[in-house]
Amino acid sequence: MQSANVQNDNQVAVARSIHDYDRFVGPAMINNLKLLADRLKGKVIQNVNSTSVGGGVAEILNRMIPLLRELGVDAHWDVIKGGEQFFQVTKKIHNLLHGRLDPISEHDFEIFMETSAMNIREVDTYGDIVFIHDPQPIALVKKRNNKKESKWIWRCHVDVSKPDPRVWKFLKKFIEKYDASVFSAPNFSQKLSIPQFLLSPSIDPLSDKNIELPQETIAAVVAKYKIDPDKPMITQVSRFDYLKDPVGVIEAYRLVKKHIDCQLVLAGGTASDDPESAVVFEEVKEKAANDPDIHILLIPPGSDIEINALQRASTIIIQKSIKEGFGLTVTEALWKGKPVVASAVGGIPLQIKHKYSGMLCHTVEGAAFAVKQLLNSPEYAKQLGSNAREHVRLNFLLTRHLKDYLLLFLSLYYREDIVNL
Amino acid sequence: MENMANEKKPFRFYSRFNLQQLTGIKAVTLTQLLKGIKEVPGSVIYDHTHRFLQQHIYLNPEPPNDFAYWVSDVLGDDELAERLASIDTIQFPDIRSLREKIIQTIEGYLDKNPAAAARKANVHEAFHFIKAISFIFPTGYVANDLKEFAEILKVITIEAIYFHVFEARLRLERNAANDFSYWIETAIGDKVLADRIAKLDPYTHTMEDLRKSIVRLVERRGE
Asked: Is A210 a member of any domain?
């Protein structure tokens, strides 16, 4: 077992103080988090996942663990071991949970169980609360009888709205040994015999992706990519993937362009482990057909400041996904006070209430209509953007995520719907 | 929990946070929605009639409850949505009576418009019934008089204001318009001020506006 070193991990920003978030949510909220944390005194919270670097879960834990500790929670983070074969199988499991077709064999399940057996032998599950993230370490729950009073939570970070039945059946026999499970959106929940909690992901307002930028930085990025600073700019930030429907975005832009002179920015990367993304990128270039007002930007990984600047420079952000997890790029855009037009899929309707904090759409034509409305009604667009930022401030910042984690841990010790702490 | 609004006692500010628990119950038609509303625990009805208010406390006028929003934006039934959105929540002393009103509204509408029962949402736009588990805790702020009360009111979280105005009245079923009015009337003895605060309809204010309005009423006491 490896203990994740949250201080030395260079994958994400260095740990910050909880008081750095005062300016976003107010000192009274931070004090309330401390009051909740006080109720967990004496409890050891042990997080377990499969990697200390890379990926969304490691990023969340890198940020959360230092802040939980600063609040006074005895939080720890351990990482299981696994070889290449094991992680190939868990990648298959991940894809199948997402609803993708990927062949999986009995032998694959055997590999999963062999590595799990090794981790069950070697991993010390010392926590009063053992918080297991995603399917890779799920079988550790077999150890729960070693410390009978311990509580176990399984946190599913994956979209399991339409999981492969065979994989779900395999995982379910472990999941139901936990005290509670956690999902990111209501439609991810499944029929389970244990309580299921709803915890939305969050963004860090102090990360490079979201931090306020000087106007000069934004202007420099716009100039670097030869974007016209004086023309309305519609932007979709996403990897080049059919599920993000970049071709549909171009079609929507063309419908808008008939009436309003504007430009389109498609900014994202291709994934080295996904050969399909290169194909999509070529299709998008072909569809753009050398239109000088369509900017297709292949942004290298780690260019968070550039993505941040492009979002801030945009007039409207679009996210025309066909399928989506929670959709954190939408959260990022909303936080920047941008009017957003996005498909009503995955976690997006949790973030956008149609005509209150953005515009939801279902079709190319609907997306184009919403974009036209917003470009022609800048005051309305501004109000949506203002509502959007406030909605994220109240519901999707890291501090809300911390609060939910504290409540989740406390909930394991109460059965009532109204708990007096 | 100690009663924070007892006569001759200082006002102790509490706050509350909610954790959302998925019930696994969902609806894609009005009939299923109605069935769910009848069967789910009161904490689910509370969540769906107040979550929108909590998550969108910056909006004014106030947005509808979750039921109205889903009926309008997913089923596309604007008339029923309007009827559900215009239920005057402040008039109901407890969740039971509020639930009954919602049921009556949907049943009455279905009686007159039986075709509405045939409308069906896509599975990915289903209505998911969610339960709110409330965690109530003392904030440490204590007011001994109205001056201290107003000063604290300016700095506490909106969750604390929300708790004393909405949750204490409707969910904990305290017999008062809100905790603030009760304390001001019974401990301070100022019925006029208590009534003025009680008259504010919190469902038609943003939480920040409500904070400002109460502070203003307290500071202008006797004018």
From this structure: no
pLDDT in tens, A136-170: 999 999 998 777 899 999 999 888 888 999 999 99
Q: Which among B142, B178, B139 is positioned nearest to B160, based on CA atoms? A: B139
Q: Are residues A79 and A198 in the same domain?
A: yes
Interface of A with B in 16-75 (CB under 8 A): 26, 28-29, 31-32, 35-36, 39
- B27 pairs with which residues across the strands? B127
Whether A418 and B172 lie within 8 Å, measured CB to CB: yes
Share of chain A above pLDDT 90, in %: 75
Lowest mean pLDDT among A282-291, A323-332, B106-115: A323-332
Nearest CA in chain B to A383: B59
Query: Which residues in chain B have their CB less than 8 angstroms from residue A356's CB?
Result: 56, 59, 63
Statement: residue A382 has pLDDT above 90: yes
The answer on A244 and A177 residing in a single domain is no
Mutate to test the interface with B, among A25, A188, A350, A353 (most CBs of B within 10 A): A353
> Where do the structural domains in chain B lie, given as residue ranges?
17-131, 143-219
Q: Name the residue of chain B whose CA is nearest to A186's CA.
A: B128
Numbered residues of chain B with Cβ closer than 8 Å to any chain A Cβ: 1, 15, 17-22, 24, 26, 41, 43, 52, 55-59, 63, 69, 73, 124-126, 128, 130-140, 155-157, 159-160, 171-172
| A195, A220: one domain | no
Residues A185 and A56 in one domain: yes
**Do A191 and A244 sit in the same domain of this protein?**
no
Minimal-distance CA residue of chain A relative to B167:
A418
Q: A36 vs B139: CB contact, 8 Å cut-off?
A: no
Is residue A207 included in any domain, yes or no? Answer: no
Q: Is residue A421 included in any domain, yes or no?
A: no
The 10s digit of each residue's pLDDT in B57-100 is 666 555 678 999 899 988 999 999 999 998 988 788 889 999 99
Instruction: Answer yes or no: is A325 within a domain.
Output: yes
Q: Are residues A183 and A281 in the same domain?
A: no
Nearest to A280 by CA among A321, A243, A327: A243
Residue A119 has what pLDDT?
A: 97
Shortest Cα–Cα distance, B62 to chain A (Å): 10
Q: What are phi and psi of A264, to 5 degrees?
A: -115, 135
A357 inside 8 A of chain B by CB: yes
Range of the domain at A255: 215-395
Q: Chain A: residue nearest B15 by CA? A: A32
